[in-house]
Hints:
The complex is a heterodimer. By secondary structure, chain A is an alpha+beta fold. Chain A has a single domain (3-74), classed as Alpha-Beta Plaits (2-Layer Sandwich). Chain A has helices at residues 16-27, 54-64; strands spanning 3-11, 32-38, 43-49, 67-74. The longest helix of chain A is centred in the N-terminal third of the chain and has 12 residues, at 16-27. Chain A is globular and about 35 Å long. Chain B has 18 helices and nine strands. Chain B has helices spanning 4-10, 20-48, 60-86, 92-96, 103-107, 136-141, 147-158, 170-198, 200-223, 238-245, 259-294, 298-319, 334-343, 351-358, 365-375, 380-404, 413-438, 445-452; strands at residues 473-480, 483-485, 488-491, 496-503, 512-515, 520-523, 528-536, 540-546, 552-557.
Amino acid sequence: MDNRTITVEIAGMHCASCGILVDDCLEDVDGVVSSQTxxxxxxxxxxxxxxxxxxxxLAAVVEAGYTGTILATAGTP
Amino acid sequence: MPAPRPLLRRGYPGGVRLELRRxxxxxxxxxxxxxxxxxxxxxxxxxxxxxxxxxGLRDALFWGSLVVSLTVAFVVTVPVNRWLIARGRGHAVVxxxxxxxxxxxxxxxxxxxxxxxxxxxGGAVPCAVGGVPLCPPYAIRxxxxxxxxxxxxxxxxxxxxxLRPGAxxxxxxxxxxxxxxxxxNWWAIFGAGLLAGATTCAxxxxxxxxxxxxxxxxxxxxxxxxxxxxxxxxxxxARGGQRAGARKPAPKATPRTSSSSxxxxxxxxxxxxxxxxxxxxLAGLVLGAFGSFIALDARIGGLAQLVAAAIMIVFGLGAAGxxxxxxxxxxxxxxxxxxxxxxxxxxxxxxxxxxxxxxxxIPCGVTISMMLLAATAGSAVAGGxxxxxxxxxxxxxxxxxxFFTQRYVSPDSRRMSILLGIxxxxxxxxxxxxxxxxxxxxxxxxxxxxxxxGTPAVAAPVAAAPAPVNGxxxxxxxxxxxxYSPSSIAAKAGVxxxxxxxxDNTRSCIVYTTFPSIGKQVVLPDSxxxxxxxxxxxxxxxxxxxxxxxxxxxxxxx
Lengths: 77, 558
């Protein structure tokens, strides 16, 4: 199955712990292969399997306590 | 290595500094034989006891073998030490560094029986610093003696040998003064912890802890062959609860039905906080020691304080959410982040504790500010205390949010963040003022307040310039427990100048007198006259202060 790369802009992060928490929450979602969040740029790059909708990714960000906006997606949905 | 730093600080009698190399040589000569004997015996005994090497922290054998090995090593090392000291070697070498003749012989201080005459072992009695006796707790705390030597001291001290009943240890007095000064700070540090526990990184760390516990429960459930079921009501379900309710208001805590579940929930939180407490206190000790070593040179210490203050103010403004500042963050290397991420996926029973230890790798701006405060605290102990108080401050809110409200997102963290930012900025300003005082800056809070009150910061010199004798003007200043007298003295410019500090049973940090603007430092004896050659002076003001800036005086050159 093809993987998609989703770039999410995340608001409300103030330190390294926040970035790790976002990655932690995202990687707990079934179908999320990896997540790399940079607190500096305020962006998260998540590699997810094609079956995972954007909404699930955003829901995980919200769950971590932040708000997210999809900036870009690459690969077939 | 206990000796070099005190040796460097104290130097030879008369205030001449000991070179680094010589200090290490003395430390080596003083303690090597003793430490070697102790370590050899200690390790030999543990090796000899079957299974002792493999015993864990929970085994009685581990602790039992430790007690036996240390006892045996102690018994063997005592005669070695006595033999060395009796021949003027061993730790006695260090004692020679402390101000030559014993104060009891020099100024009739009958309270301190001193290095001679007690049970035949000079090392058994604490070193006199500045000619003033030290009590064993101080001497141990500041590593002027090793704990095992302190066992001797403890007994001789209790028998009234070191300090007569009611006599005061000068350095305890000194510390009491500083502790009084910093009382407000301790509350500010605790307050910062309290606010940080409900905001900033502590909230995110709570989320990491909850994730860790959820995964552990899941794994345990899977191992049991049961369906994955994360029960509500446990701290571990906090993020699970959040997952259902996203950012809606926190659900009310489920009433605990049994005490065992309460304990189950609190243990991981306590473990996490304990890990944080241990590692950050250790960091504070190291930073405090490092900072006090740097501050041996008043000017370098002042500059380091200045940098620390600037960083604290920037992080404080960032925590308060001031645009342009909140973007400034410490970005840990990816390898550090990986360690933390790995520890959130551990299945070990110690995982919460280890996660608490690991989070030192991802400090937020507020934590870094506290670390800087620890570094400028003045000693290892004070540095450790700063961090410990901060972590303890985070505990109540951290526990409350995680445990009772079932989620780690605080409802009104914005207002608390601003308050936290203000507290950190104030600490930064406090540090800034201390650095300006240490650097002899003309602009300090004291000078501004004086200006606002309409009084000049430095009053006209209290004492007139003395007439030069043989072309040299000699300024006589009494250094007393209550300050310099006269507090300001006039001097003529261009005339070779000497200052003579007179001390008479002076017991305070004023014995560490510095001229910050010209980078001169001198250590005064508790009683006597100390001459400092300043050369020919240019017109202006030359501030005098103790090394901590508590006592100040001025030479007004015109």
